[in-house]
Amino acid sequence: MLARGINRLRQLAASPSFHASGRKKWWKRLVQERILQERILQERKERERRVVLATAIVTMVQIYNGGAGFERALSRGKSKDGKPKATAAATAAPAASSSAAPARAAPARAAPARAAPAAAAPVSKPTAEKPAVAQDATLVKLAAGMGVMSDLEKKFIELEAKLVAQPAGQAMPGKSNIFANNEAWRQEMLKQDPEFFNRLANGQSPEYLWIGCADSRVPANQLLDLPAGEVFVHRNIANQCIHSDISFLSVLQYAVQYLKVKHILVCGHYGCGGAKAALGDSRLGLIDNWLRHIRDVRRMNAKYLDKCKDGDEELNRLIELNVLEQVHNVCATSIVQDAWDAGQELTVQGVVYGVGDGKLRDLGVVVNSSDDISKFYRTKSDSGALKAGNPNAPLVQVTKGGESELDSTMEKLTAELVQQTPGKLKEGANRVFVNNENWRQKMLKQDPQFFSNLAHTQTPEILWIGCADSRVPANQIINLPAGEVFVHRNIANQCIHSDMSFLSVLQYAVQYLKVKRVVVCGHYACGGCAAALGDSRLGLIDNWLRHIRDVRRHNQAELSRITDPKDSLNRLIEINVLEQMHNVCATSIVQDAWDAGQELEVQGVVYGVGDGKLRDMGVVAKANDDIGQIFRTKQ
């Protein structure tokens, strides 16, 4: 830092514009900047010290748990003849370091273990006793050198220092293929419309909220043939709309209450890996808890699924029924019902996409008022201004008409599905389906085998974690076709360690798809970060934004230095990307991959909606050695 200041002084001194009257002011500004940077470093060290202290306390509790811990500690301090002996740390450190490497390599050999149960029956149980567990064993083994910053943490501090030294919103363009692809797409868009990005810089007003699967073969904007700014997007495993998922609810509230979207499209797709896993009995890990909701759909519709001729037909039928259930879940939220009660124009529609032929198919259900909500899920607003209507109105309006209770309505709709061939639903006729057909024909013209190649599998190299903002469509801004990018999108590209939606996507992408790169993408003019800088109470979404407010609090020294609100927002957006990168690296999912020797890197980027440029944050994590020791765990 001091060397950089001296270089600045030398450059300025060599400049003709550097005169005596400006020397004092410049030096004063340099000293103030130096003091600010030192304060940032001190705050980081203090936060690290507190975490280390808390971890040490937990460790001590583990050691002394049971009431006899102090006696054990005293006895360990003496040899059998009562004389003091060398400390355990001094003697154990070499052994720990020599055995640590083989322990990390173990996961690579553990994969075949799933096939073992078939041959395990004839084998008798071993008679040897399990190795005794040390009485003073701790829940988590503290690594030697706890408190010493890792390479990645040092990079983060250096990067923050660089951010402080340059104008907010001016991160540098990168040099890898995604940045080259972005520039090619940007130039093409400017060629078609020189004012395209200028319009997007002023805000977004999408008509559609798309709730779809993270599958790389189902990019919303491309298959709808709509440009950036037209579709607000939320994507997770198997297009789930779960009433307790704050990620989904935050997207829904922002889209309906603030963006005033007119259409909500719940889109499933044939060949869905999540639905296929829910039909199987393999235990996949953490993601099983997310798939539990699809298993519920399977259980509730078992009598229809059992009649299917084969596995493919059963999978297609489950995918269609799952979309119906998610449409129901969207309509049952207070967010959608509040909009209808206020007279807002809003429809909820279910569609299914065929990855093998590129066609978007209509499920035959459109919900557009509170009258369509079953009495079991219809609630009154605080003002009691619920529209008068039949309390026994059905959940959905079936095309052929007729009113009935919830159960019979679902029975009718399900009966119509059963009469059709699974995977062969009728095609729709509105703008969504017309646009899809135009895009499909264009892709077939370019490559007649395009969809057939995607029909059975996906092999994306990139997992994209981005914002739901309609102006930031992943595939378009990095100029990659369907099948290349696995995508998770939520409000303000958050990677939260307790968010099952994010963790399920991450596990599926890293553990099963074996992606090689995780890209965390923020974007300038992010509405979520702007809200986190304000003090307006927005409702349920405030609980989601709490995580960005934490980033703001931890970096208040830097943010308070910036007087321009726009620059302050840009700086928070950049720092938030760094924080989410850290959160991805700190997951056991990513660390397990690195322990197994899997090729995987985590990268942070920022997209400018006003100029279409993708910018590099300048830090890439590639191995466990880059993880701070506070967050590094062992299997």
TrEMBL record:
Organism expressing this protein natively: Porphyridium purpureum
SMART domains xref list: Pro_CA
Binding site for Zn(2+): C213, D215, H269, C272
Cofactor needs: Zn(2+)
SUPFAM superfamilies xref list: beta-carbonic anhydrase, cab
GO biological process: carbon utilization
Name under which the protein is recorded: Carbonic anhydrase
UniProt entry keywords in alphabetical sequence: Lyase, Metal-binding, Zinc
Cofactor stoichiometry and binding remark: Binds 1 zinc ion per subunit.
GO MF annotations in UniProt: carbonate dehydratase activity; zinc ion binding
Gene3D superfamilies registered for this protein in UniProt: Carbonic anhydrase
